[in-house]
Amino acid sequence: MKLETHKLTDSLYLITGPGGNIVLSVGANGVFLVDDQIAPMTPALKQAVAAITPKPVRFIFNTHWHGDHTGGNAVLGGEGAVIVAHENVRKRLSTEQLVKMFNKKVPPAPPAALPVITFTDTIAFHLNGDDIEVTHVDPAHTDGDSIVWFKKANLLHMGDTFMSGGYPFIDVSSGGTVDGFVKAADRGLAIAQPSTKIVPGHGPLADRARLKEFRDMVATIRDRVKKLALAGKSLAEVKAARPTAEYDKAWGHAFIKPEQLVDTIYDEATKKR
Asked: What is the dotted CATH code of the domain comprising 4-220?
Protein backbone atom coordinates (compact mmCIF):
# COMPACT_ATOMS: atom_id res chain seq x y z
CA MET A 1 0.00 0.00 0.00
CA LYS A 2 1.26 3.47 -0.82
CA LEU A 3 0.13 7.06 -1.06
CA GLU A 4 0.31 9.27 -4.13
CA THR A 5 0.48 13.06 -4.04
CA HIS A 6 -1.01 15.20 -6.80
CA LYS A 7 -0.43 18.96 -6.92
CA LEU A 8 -3.69 20.81 -7.55
CA THR A 9 -2.69 24.46 -6.98
CA ASP A 10 0.31 26.28 -5.52
CA SER A 11 -0.98 25.52 -2.02
CA LEU A 12 -3.30 22.50 -2.38
CA TYR A 13 -2.49 18.85 -2.91
CA LEU A 14 -4.58 15.70 -3.28
CA ILE A 15 -3.22 12.65 -1.46
CA THR A 16 -4.70 9.30 -2.49
CA GLY A 17 -4.23 5.78 -1.18
CA PRO A 18 -6.09 2.82 0.32
CA GLY A 19 -8.30 5.02 2.49
CA GLY A 20 -10.25 8.19 1.83
CA ASN A 21 -8.95 11.03 -0.32
CA ILE A 22 -7.03 13.75 1.53
CA VAL A 23 -6.70 17.42 0.68
CA LEU A 24 -3.51 19.03 1.98
CA SER A 25 -3.27 22.82 2.30
CA VAL A 26 0.19 24.32 2.82
CA GLY A 27 1.08 27.96 3.38
CA ALA A 28 2.07 30.68 5.79
CA ASN A 29 -0.38 29.48 8.44
CA GLY A 30 0.88 25.89 8.44
CA VAL A 31 -0.45 22.52 7.35
CA PHE A 32 -4.18 21.84 7.16
CA LEU A 33 -5.49 18.36 6.29
CA VAL A 34 -8.97 17.32 5.26
CA ASP A 35 -9.08 13.69 6.49
CA ASP A 36 -6.05 11.52 7.25
CA GLN A 37 -6.36 7.99 5.82
CA ILE A 38 -6.33 4.62 7.56
CA ALA A 39 -4.13 4.21 10.63
CA PRO A 40 -1.42 1.99 9.02
CA MET A 41 -0.75 4.74 6.46
CA THR A 42 0.07 7.42 9.04
CA PRO A 43 3.88 7.08 8.65
CA ALA A 44 3.47 7.35 4.87
CA LEU A 45 1.17 10.35 5.30
CA LYS A 46 3.73 12.11 7.48
CA GLN A 47 6.37 11.42 4.83
CA ALA A 48 4.11 12.78 2.09
CA VAL A 49 3.58 16.00 4.05
CA ALA A 50 7.30 16.28 4.87
CA ALA A 51 8.14 15.96 1.16
CA ILE A 52 6.22 19.21 0.59
CA THR A 53 6.88 21.22 3.76
CA PRO A 54 8.88 20.87 6.99
CA LYS A 55 5.98 22.39 8.94
CA PRO A 56 3.98 20.13 11.29
CA VAL A 57 0.31 19.43 10.78
CA ARG A 58 -1.57 22.23 12.53
CA PHE A 59 -5.21 21.39 11.80
CA ILE A 60 -7.09 18.27 10.72
CA PHE A 61 -10.70 18.36 9.61
CA ASN A 62 -12.61 15.04 9.57
CA THR A 63 -15.43 14.84 7.01
CA HIS A 64 -17.00 11.98 9.06
CA TRP A 65 -16.04 9.37 11.64
CA HIS A 66 -15.03 6.27 9.63
CA GLY A 67 -11.52 4.96 10.20
CA ASP A 68 -10.46 5.27 6.57
CA HIS A 69 -10.77 9.05 7.01
CA THR A 70 -9.75 9.41 10.68
CA GLY A 71 -7.05 6.76 11.03
CA GLY A 72 -4.24 9.28 11.41
CA ASN A 73 -6.01 11.21 14.17
CA ALA A 74 -4.44 9.41 17.10
CA VAL A 75 -0.83 9.94 16.05
CA LEU A 76 -1.21 13.41 14.53
CA GLY A 77 -3.50 14.60 17.33
CA GLY A 78 -1.01 13.26 19.84
CA GLU A 79 1.69 15.30 18.12
CA GLY A 80 -0.28 18.51 18.54
CA ALA A 81 -2.57 18.77 15.52
CA VAL A 82 -5.94 20.33 16.35
CA ILE A 83 -8.74 18.01 15.17
CA VAL A 84 -12.02 19.61 14.10
CA ALA A 85 -15.27 17.88 13.08
CA HIS A 86 -19.03 17.88 13.41
CA GLU A 87 -20.24 17.06 16.91
CA ASN A 88 -21.59 13.68 15.76
CA VAL A 89 -18.10 12.68 14.62
CA ARG A 90 -16.78 13.11 18.16
CA LYS A 91 -19.80 11.27 19.58
CA ARG A 92 -19.26 8.26 17.31
CA LEU A 93 -15.47 8.17 17.67
CA SER A 94 -15.74 8.27 21.46
CA THR A 95 -18.07 5.24 21.73
CA GLU A 96 -18.16 1.73 20.31
CA GLN A 97 -19.85 1.61 16.91
CA LEU A 98 -21.39 -1.17 14.85
CA VAL A 99 -21.34 -0.93 11.06
CA LYS A 100 -24.27 -3.23 10.39
CA MET A 101 -23.70 -3.73 6.67
CA PHE A 102 -20.43 -5.51 7.44
CA ASN A 103 -21.33 -6.65 10.98
CA LYS A 104 -18.20 -4.87 12.18
CA LYS A 105 -17.72 -3.51 15.68
CA VAL A 106 -15.44 -0.49 15.97
CA PRO A 107 -13.98 0.23 19.43
CA PRO A 108 -13.82 3.76 20.85
CA ALA A 109 -10.93 5.85 19.56
CA PRO A 110 -8.21 6.92 22.02
CA PRO A 111 -8.52 10.43 23.48
CA ALA A 112 -5.82 11.85 21.20
CA ALA A 113 -7.90 10.88 18.17
CA LEU A 114 -11.01 12.80 19.20
CA PRO A 115 -11.94 16.18 17.72
CA VAL A 116 -11.20 18.94 20.22
CA ILE A 117 -13.30 21.51 18.34
CA THR A 118 -16.80 20.56 17.20
CA PHE A 119 -19.64 22.43 15.52
CA THR A 120 -23.27 21.88 14.58
CA ASP A 121 -24.01 23.60 11.25
CA THR A 122 -21.10 25.54 9.75
CA ILE A 123 -17.55 26.50 10.59
CA ALA A 124 -14.90 28.45 8.70
CA PHE A 125 -11.11 28.43 8.54
CA HIS A 126 -9.10 31.35 7.24
CA LEU A 127 -5.78 29.77 6.40
CA ASN A 128 -3.01 29.86 3.81
CA GLY A 129 -4.59 32.66 1.82
CA ASP A 130 -7.97 30.98 1.48
CA ASP A 131 -11.38 31.12 3.12
CA ILE A 132 -12.47 27.57 3.81
CA GLU A 133 -16.17 27.12 4.47
CA VAL A 134 -17.39 23.87 6.03
CA THR A 135 -21.04 22.85 5.96
CA HIS A 136 -22.68 19.97 7.81
CA VAL A 137 -25.18 18.32 5.47
CA ASP A 138 -28.23 16.21 6.20
CA PRO A 139 -27.39 12.59 7.13
CA ALA A 140 -26.18 10.90 3.95
CA HIS A 141 -23.19 8.60 4.35
CA THR A 142 -23.40 9.14 8.13
CA ASP A 143 -24.99 11.66 10.50
CA GLY A 144 -21.73 13.60 10.79
CA ASP A 145 -21.03 14.39 7.13
CA SER A 146 -19.50 17.70 6.12
CA ILE A 147 -18.38 19.20 2.83
CA VAL A 148 -15.39 21.55 2.66
CA TRP A 149 -15.25 24.48 0.22
CA PHE A 150 -11.92 26.18 -0.54
CA LYS A 151 -13.42 29.36 -1.97
CA LYS A 152 -10.41 31.05 -3.55
CA ALA A 153 -8.91 27.81 -4.85
CA ASN A 154 -12.33 26.78 -6.23
CA LEU A 155 -12.06 23.29 -4.77
CA LEU A 156 -14.74 21.30 -2.97
CA HIS A 157 -14.09 18.18 -0.84
CA MET A 158 -17.34 16.22 -0.58
CA GLY A 159 -16.17 13.49 1.80
CA ASP A 160 -18.03 10.22 1.38
CA THR A 161 -21.24 11.98 0.36
CA PHE A 162 -19.76 11.55 -3.16
CA MET A 163 -18.02 8.52 -4.63
CA SER A 164 -16.84 9.46 -8.12
CA GLY A 165 -16.50 5.89 -9.32
CA GLY A 166 -19.13 3.85 -7.53
CA TYR A 167 -22.45 3.51 -5.80
CA PRO A 168 -22.92 5.30 -2.46
CA PHE A 169 -22.30 3.55 0.83
CA ILE A 170 -25.29 4.47 2.99
CA ASP A 171 -24.16 3.61 6.52
CA VAL A 172 -27.60 3.27 8.07
CA SER A 173 -26.14 2.23 11.42
CA SER A 174 -24.39 5.64 11.52
CA GLY A 175 -27.56 7.52 10.61
CA GLY A 176 -27.05 7.60 6.85
CA THR A 177 -29.95 7.98 4.39
CA VAL A 178 -30.33 7.85 0.63
CA ASP A 179 -32.29 11.12 0.66
CA GLY A 180 -29.33 12.75 2.36
CA PHE A 181 -27.04 11.72 -0.49
CA VAL A 182 -29.26 13.51 -2.98
CA LYS A 183 -29.45 16.59 -0.76
CA ALA A 184 -25.68 16.63 -0.20
CA ALA A 185 -25.10 16.44 -3.94
CA ASP A 186 -27.58 19.27 -4.44
CA ARG A 187 -25.66 21.34 -1.90
CA GLY A 188 -22.40 20.63 -3.69
CA LEU A 189 -23.93 21.47 -7.06
CA ALA A 190 -25.19 24.77 -5.67
CA ILE A 191 -21.62 25.65 -4.66
CA ALA A 192 -19.70 24.30 -7.62
CA GLN A 193 -19.06 25.92 -10.97
CA PRO A 194 -18.08 24.09 -14.18
CA SER A 195 -14.42 24.81 -13.38
CA THR A 196 -14.57 23.66 -9.75
CA LYS A 197 -12.34 20.75 -8.79
CA ILE A 198 -14.38 18.29 -6.72
CA VAL A 199 -12.66 15.79 -4.45
CA PRO A 200 -14.79 12.73 -3.67
CA GLY A 201 -14.32 10.65 -0.56
CA HIS A 202 -13.12 7.85 -2.83
CA GLY A 203 -12.35 7.73 -6.52
CA PRO A 204 -10.69 10.07 -9.03
CA LEU A 205 -10.77 13.85 -8.88
CA ALA A 206 -14.04 14.99 -10.42
CA ASP A 207 -15.94 18.04 -11.59
CA ARG A 208 -19.45 19.43 -11.37
CA ALA A 209 -20.66 17.36 -14.32
CA ARG A 210 -19.57 14.13 -12.64
CA LEU A 211 -21.22 15.12 -9.36
CA LYS A 212 -24.43 15.81 -11.30
CA GLU A 213 -24.23 12.34 -12.87
CA PHE A 214 -23.81 10.82 -9.41
CA ARG A 215 -26.72 12.81 -7.99
CA ASP A 216 -29.07 11.87 -10.82
CA MET A 217 -28.05 8.21 -10.62
CA VAL A 218 -28.72 8.03 -6.87
CA ALA A 219 -32.03 9.88 -7.18
CA THR A 220 -33.25 7.69 -10.04
CA ILE A 221 -32.43 4.41 -8.29
CA ARG A 222 -33.95 5.70 -5.05
CA ASP A 223 -37.18 6.67 -6.78
CA ARG A 224 -37.45 3.35 -8.60
CA VAL A 225 -36.85 1.24 -5.50
CA LYS A 226 -39.16 3.32 -3.31
CA LYS A 227 -41.97 3.23 -5.88
CA LEU A 228 -41.82 -0.57 -6.04
CA ALA A 229 -41.48 -0.91 -2.26
CA LEU A 230 -44.43 1.36 -1.56
CA ALA A 231 -46.48 -0.61 -4.08
CA GLY A 232 -46.04 -3.63 -1.82
CA LYS A 233 -43.36 -5.45 -3.81
CA SER A 234 -41.09 -7.77 -1.87
CA LEU A 235 -37.35 -7.23 -1.80
CA ALA A 236 -36.91 -10.19 -4.14
CA GLU A 237 -39.40 -8.70 -6.58
CA VAL A 238 -37.65 -5.33 -6.46
CA LYS A 239 -34.29 -6.95 -7.17
CA ALA A 240 -35.83 -8.93 -10.04
CA ALA A 241 -36.93 -5.62 -11.58
CA ARG A 242 -33.24 -4.60 -11.71
CA PRO A 243 -33.69 -0.92 -10.83
CA THR A 244 -29.94 -0.29 -11.09
CA ALA A 245 -29.36 -2.07 -14.42
CA GLU A 246 -28.57 0.93 -16.60
CA TYR A 247 -25.99 2.19 -14.10
CA ASP A 248 -24.27 -1.06 -13.11
CA LYS A 249 -21.60 -0.96 -15.79
CA ALA A 250 -20.47 2.55 -14.89
CA TRP A 251 -21.05 2.57 -11.13
CA GLY A 252 -21.56 -1.01 -9.90
CA HIS A 253 -18.05 -2.41 -9.68
CA ALA A 254 -16.64 -0.49 -6.73
CA PHE A 255 -17.08 -0.90 -2.97
CA ILE A 256 -20.88 -1.13 -2.91
CA LYS A 257 -22.54 -3.67 -5.20
CA PRO A 258 -25.97 -3.13 -6.81
CA GLU A 259 -27.71 -5.62 -4.53
CA GLN A 260 -26.36 -3.90 -1.40
CA LEU A 261 -27.61 -0.53 -2.59
CA VAL A 262 -31.07 -1.91 -3.34
CA ASP A 263 -31.19 -3.65 0.05
CA THR A 264 -30.46 -0.40 1.88
CA ILE A 265 -32.90 1.77 -0.07
CA TYR A 266 -35.64 -0.87 0.22
CA ASP A 267 -35.17 -1.10 3.98
CA GLU A 268 -35.32 2.68 4.29
CA ALA A 269 -38.49 2.86 2.19
CA THR A 270 -40.36 0.08 3.97
CA LYS A 271 -39.51 1.34 7.46
CA LYS A 272 -41.22 4.63 6.61
CA ARG A 273 -44.48 3.01 5.52
From this structure: 3.60.15.10
pLDDT tens, 184-230? 999 999 999 999 999 999 999 999 999 999 999 999 999 999 999 99
User: Could you report the per-residue pLDDT of 95-112, keeping only the tens digit for each?
Assistant: 999 999 889 999 999 999
Residue 134 identity: V
> What is the DSSP code string of 23-79?
EEEEETTEEEEE----GGGHHHHHHHHHTT-SSPEEEEE-SSS-HHHHTTHHHHHHT
Label the pairing between strands 155-157 and 122-127. unpaired
Contacts of 229 (CB under 8 A, 6+ apart): 238, 265, 266, 269, 270, 273
Domains of the chain by residue range: 4-220
Long-range contacts of 270-273 (CB under 8 A, 24+ apart): 270/229, 273/229, 273/230
Residue 266 CB neighbours (<10 A): 20
